[in-house]
Amino acid sequence: MLFSSSPLLIDTLRQRRVKLSYLIDFPAILWSGRANSRNFPANIYPFRASSHFLYFAGFPLENAAIRLYEGRLELFMDNAPKDNALWQGETPQRDQIAELMGADAAYPLTELFNYLEDAATIVVQNPITANEQRQLLNCPLVSAKEPQGIDLELTQAVIHLRLTHDQFAINELRQAAEISVEAHKIGMKATKTAQLEAQVRAAMEGVIMSHNMTCSYNSIVTVHGEVLHNQQYHHPLQPGDLLLADVGAETPMGWAADITRTWPVSGTFSPTQRDIYHLVLKAHDTCIDSIKPGIEYQDIHRMAATVIAEGLVELGILKGTPEDLVEQDAHALFFPHGIGHLLGLDVHDMEDLGDLAGYEPGRVRSQRFGWCFLRLNRPLKPGMLVTIEPGFYQVPAILNNPKNRKKYKTVVNWKRLEQFADVRGIRIEDDVLVTEIEPEILTKNLPTSIAEIEALVQN
Amino acid sequence: MLFSSSPLLIDTLRQRRVKLSYLIDFPAILWSGRANSRNFPANIYPFRASSHFLYFAGFPLENAAIRLYEGRLELFMDNAPKDNALWQGETPQRDQIAELMGADAAYPLTELFNYLEDAATIVVQNPITANEQRQLLNCPLVSAKEPQGIDLELTQAVIHLRLTHDQFAINELRQAAEISVEAHKIGMKATKTAQLEAQVRAAMEGVIMSHNMTCSYNSIVTVHGEVLHNQQYHHPLQPGDLLLADVGAETPMGWAADITRTWPVSGTFSPTQRDIYHLVLKAHDTCIDSIKPGIEYQDIHRMAATVIAEGLVELGILKGTPEDLVEQDAHALFFPHGIGHLLGLDVHDMEDLGDLAGYEPGRVRSQRFGWCFLRLNRPLKPGMLVTIEPGFYQVPAILNNPKNRKKYKTVVNWKRLEQFADVRGIRIEDDVLVTEIEPEILTKNLPTSIAEIEALVQN
Ligand SMILES: [Mn+2]
Ligand SMILES: [Mn+2]
Questions:
Q1: Where does the record place the Aminopeptidase P N-terminal domain (chains A, B) (predicted)?
Q2: Rounded to the nearest 5°, which phi and psi values hold at B447?
Q3: Of A128, B108, B190, B371, whose CA is between 20 and 30 Å from B5?
């Protein structure tokens, strides 16, 4: 990893912890976690520090902790053992790192034992570090989703801060978006000569890797876009297929992008693919145009559902009025997931906290078909970054479900639907920053129009 | 993942467990492990099943277990929940998988509770599954490196089997080698236009990814080859640099390759780089030529050390006779690591077991400088796959160490060494299968000669 600091970073980290000190009056200790071993201890998965740690510490330090109290930052980590230099080279020492992050003090990790009193924490993902957290703080700490007492207070304070992004974060998020845009363009260009999904994926992730970024999640690059979290890449590309690519980069400091585009393998959408693409794009554009402070994200979701229902009525696939159809959840037959989610240090930002971040206090997930997958349900505020990602899918598990066949017998024109068999899955996803004025689409340099996408694929 | 089976796979799995039944007379239960969560539960690192599980089960099933007893194979896993189909598509059911692997019976995971009696196991890497192993078997199970009682007996039996490879394994290992060779060739070709290490890395890993393989370890692609496990890729490529790339593929069933080449960024080795490259290559060739059944791997290591010492004497860097220098560990100033290791399902095969696999029973690691990093110390047998990877490095932590400066004051011509400042690190690594006759270099399609490497880079 690169340890590059700047006055802006140091100042940003200070502002974040000062803001935290306005919200809680007890110390917070945040652990970074450890690398996970893959098939043997020395063969590790690339280390990813806990996002809460990254937010206040900046650098992805392994097996470190920070203590935040009254605006002060104390770093706890061990220097690498001497014989490490042969294998890892000279790595920065604790005191150097402390200086780079603007810490007020720095101690070996064992010293943390003397700074635990009255401290709250958030449980990390790595089970070994999580166990250490439990032992050191001598409390159960079930999971980050169910914090209790001061841990819950800390969690709520961190959510409050991380819900809206400061300038430093926005700069990072823009960089992640920019490289992700480039990856998608290269993916489109690579499709012409590719025979397999895997080859397009390789081209796209290659762009991310060549900029020293990582993928912020496991890429989806598939001709079976109807499998929402498809992580297989072995299908051959056939001329009539649509390729759905959901690929995003993460900066070395952990800030994520999340983009989906869908393009025709042949370089030309079929008439039926154009029809469906247009309605998904209309939902996408309508939602983004509506993003402004104060609007409820669930209303944006409903808007997408309504536009999709409307489009499907126009195409003769659904029957009825869009509003009635949405009321019956008929849109969810084809658009079963939510319109998007928070984006930040995590691609589903703060999803380690369950719905504590995504849902306004007092709100809980709906049980309704479609609505149950809505990951964000809050009024939008300036500085929030959200994805907008409407889609249309023909999911066999949904459309062939006898209960759905019965319930939606009269509202779906199943015969007409058969004519759209070459549209298995389309999604269009962009990253949108809520501002006081116009929303800023961080991923706007990647086209969404059929003409521009076809041109990129044909190139 | 792909579930493709074949009569050869089913027969191979049966042979492996029948052989196991000749070695132990109690049941063995092997767990596959779980995916590790990265920054939130749904954002996981790509799942890698435990290698011991893969050896007997073939497929990388998540959160599954197999019970092996008297040549029988019983599979324990849960079918995916129904609503999983929306996110993951239709996945094969337990009974189908059982058939594909030739299992004798298949049960839900909870049934495992009734099959635990007298069973031995090997602790997996994933801490959550490891904890389940401990709870279910009601025993401490410290780590895979320190098995006790029947767990130790099982471990020794598995080592016995996995030390030499059957035909199915060799086919897989050849495929991993072939794609890794291709990755290195593309890496060499990509160097011409690359500005950063990261770009070469991306080109190389792109080849692996585009063949639906994964990296068997975190790639090393660096102009600072003297940092042995360098996993940073941010350095710019300068014309006078050597680029060291240690990159290997792993097949979907988990079989690994491990290749290192070192090439000049400019396409032409400098005279000093040629000199050192030649001596590393001579060590490489000498070692490979010596591989045959019965030879001690530590003698091959000593051979490499001697050839390197000899070459450094010829270049005027070391003073004395090669044998004396090796006796004093002077070679380790420049070749501090071991000549190689076992290769199979793990890139350092069975290193989860500590030295139980790498070291013949009764042998322990030397404390001596250089020798302490020898990972394999056994007589070779037909069917073993080992790496041969001599190197030359100028490691500041070693060469600037005052103790070494003093101890080796008279044997190193430090002034002469300064003339080789443009050689920070060179390693040449191939994967060599021990056979009754000639050793088979699985990675032989990747050239090692200066002329051929320069041609590939210049292309
Ligand atoms: Mn998304
Ligand atoms: Mn190796």
A1: 8-135
A2: -65, 155
A3: B108
Among all bound ligands, the one having the nearest atom to the CA of A43 is 2
Q: H-helix or E-strand containing B133? A: helix B127-137
What one-character-per-residue DSSP string does B174-223 give?
A: HHHHHHHHHHHHHHHHHHTT-SBHHHHHHHHHHHHHHTT-EESS--EEES
Output B290 or A88, whichever has higher pLDDT: B290
Between vectors from CA B199 to CA B198 and to CA B203, what angle results, nearest 5°? 115
A203 contacts B206? CB cut-off 8 A: yes
B30 beta partners:
B66
**Percent of chain B scoring above 90 in pLDDT:** 93
ipTM over 0.90: yes
Which ligand has an atom closest to residue B351 CA?
2
User: Do B296 and B193 share a structural domain?
Assistant: yes
Examine the domain organization and report whether A242 and A343 are in the same domain: yes
Tell me, yes or no, if B87 comes closer than 8 A to chain A by beta carbon: yes
Chain A contact present for B345, CB below 8 A: yes
Both B15 and B107 in one domain: the answer is yes
Q: Which of B347, B400, B326, B124 is nearest to B229 (CA)?
A: B347
- Mean pLDDT across B200-213: 98
Output the domain CATH number for residue A103.
3.40.350.10
Q: Please report whether residue B142 resides in a domain.
A: yes
* Residue B132 C-alpha, separation from nearest chain A C-alpha, in angstroms: 13
Residue A321 Cα to ligand 2 middle (Å) = 65
B window 28-67, beta carbon within 8 A of A = 36-46, 48, 50-51
Residue B1 lies in a domain: no
CB contact under 8 A, B88 and A37: no
Give a yes or no: residue B382 inside a domain.
Answer: yes
Which pLDDT does position B17 carry in this prediction?
98
Report whether pLDDT(A383) > 80: yes
Say whether residue B81 is in contact with chain A using an 8 A CB cutoff: no
Q: Which of B111, B138, B162 is the C-terminal boundary of a domain?
A: B162
For residue B2, being part of any structural domain is answered with no
Instruction: Report CA(B259)–ligand 2 centroid distance (Å).
Output: 7
State whether A128 and A217 are in the same domain: no
- Choose among A449, A429, A427: nearest CA to A385: A429
pLDDT reading at A236 higher than 70: yes
Place of tokens 């959901």: A246
The answer to whether residues B384 and B292 belong to one domain is yes
B166's CB contacts (< 8 A; 6+ apart) are B12, B15, B16, B383
Which of A137, A162, A187 lies at the terminal end of a domain, its last residue? A162
A128 touches B at CB < 8 Å = yes
Q: How far is B131 from chain A (nearest CA, A)?
A: 10
Q: What domain range is A273 assigned to?
A: 167-458
Residue A239 sits at the vertex; the CA angle it makes with A237 and A243, to the nearest 5 degrees, is: 50
Q: Same structural domain for residues B126 and B211?
A: no
Amino acid identity of residue A220, one-letter, is I
- In angstroms, the CA A111 to CA B98 distance is 52
Beta carbons of A127 and B125 less than 8 Å apart: no
Distance CA A230, CA B249 (A): 22
Interface probe, candidates B2, B37, B38, B375, chain A, greatest A C-beta count within 10 A? B38
Q: How far is Cα B207 from Cα A296, in angstroms, rounded to an integer?
A: 45
Are residue B158 and residue B173 in the same domain, yes or no? no
Residue B202 is nearest to which of A209, A233, A336, comparing CB atoms? Answer: A209
- CATH number, domain of B429, equals 3.90.230.10
pLDDT above 70 coverage of chain B, percent: 100
- Phi-psi group of A394: left, alpha or beta (phi > 0 → left; psi -120 to 50 → alpha; rest → beta): beta
Give me the number of domains chain B comprises: 2
Per-residue pLDDT for A44 more than 70? yes
Q: Indicate if A304 and A196 belong to the same structural domain.
A: yes
Q: Do A87 and B228 touch (CB under 8 A)?
A: yes
